[in-house]
Amino acid sequence: MKMKLTELLHDFYAPMRRISDRTIELYGYTIKSFGDFLGREPTVADLDELVVARFLAHRIRTREPATAAKDRAQLRALWEWAARGKMVDTWPRIQPVNVPERVPEAWFTEEFQRLLTEASKETVTISGTPAALFWRAILLVCYDTGERISSVLALRWRNVRGLTVLYEAEDRKGKRRDLLREITEQTAEAMQAIKGSRTPDDAVFLWDKNPKYIWRRLAIILKRAGLPSGRKDKFHKIRKTCASYSQAGGVSAQDVLDHADPKTTRKYLDPRIVKPPSAISVLPKVG
């Protein structure tokens, strides 16, 4: 069948599964990478065991294992959809990609303070707001609430209520339920400093630049602060920071992050902050 994978994604899979625009974008990256590997635009006919296996082997050699695992999961999902619709004759049989489980890393308090200090030195404007004020507010909201950056960017002024913010289900991963979170007075003040004449339906954090640039700009600020600025050191690391200090202080990180499975939450807890039982604390002294 000569249907392009992009057509399968946009015309069938996305509307029937009702996936978000961001998820569609991520699937698009996988399809583009598959096409780059093939040297042409991939079609449904390319959902072939050997072809996909060669592509994934290439991705494992040239990218992080987690990236290859994402590509596998998304191609498998499209392939299964095509098989159910009898667009292809075979079902996917793809070996899993082994993704090493890394020790979670959060920001220590002193590190996050350095990040805030450096962010306050930004000099341009973002949607008419001084960037220094914008960055202080968004970093503090991420820190206080532990919510994903996609939800934070979707937050509307109508849902900022005193010392609480409400993340609507429609803007959250999974779109299952609203999430109400408390914020500190300093965070509320930082948000009010960027409100100006915004209306209740306006986004709190209006971003008038390329959507991807917010991650690149954060990397620049991190570098100026003398902090790591890799792929794992962006907004999700602030989420790990909130989770780790919450758990260490006796508050359920699973509840804070709104995870259904505690196994997922464990991947967010920095053992330097949430200290697990240590063998050396009980081993008899020797030597």
Task: Write structural notes for this entry.
With 287 residues, this protein is mainly α. It folds into two domains: 5-84; 109-266, Intergrase catalytic core (hpI Integrase, Chain A, Orthogonal Bundle). Helices cover 49% and strands 5% of the residues. It has helices spanning 5-17, 21-38, 49-62, 65-84, 109-119, 131-145, 149-154, 185-192, 213-224, 235-248, 253-257, 262-266; strands spanning 125-126, 129-130, 160-161, 164-167, 179-182. A three-stranded antiparallel beta sheet has the order 3-4-5. Strands 1-2 form a two-stranded antiparallel ribbon. The radius of gyration is 22 Å and the shape is globular. The termini are far apart.
Defining key terms:
single chain; 287 residues; mainly alpha; hpI Integrase, Chain A; 2 domains; three-stranded antiparallel β-sheet; two-stranded antiparallel sheet; 12 helices; 5 strands; 5% strand; globular
In short:
By secondary structure, the chain is mainly alpha-helical. It has helices spanning 5-17, 21-38, 49-62, 65-84, 109-119, 131-145, 149-154, 185-192, 213-224, 235-248, 253-257, 262-266, and strands at residues 125-126, 129-130, 160-161, 164-167, 179-182. The protein has 2 domains: 5-84; 109-266, Intergrase catalytic core (hpI Integrase, Chain A, Orthogonal Bundle).
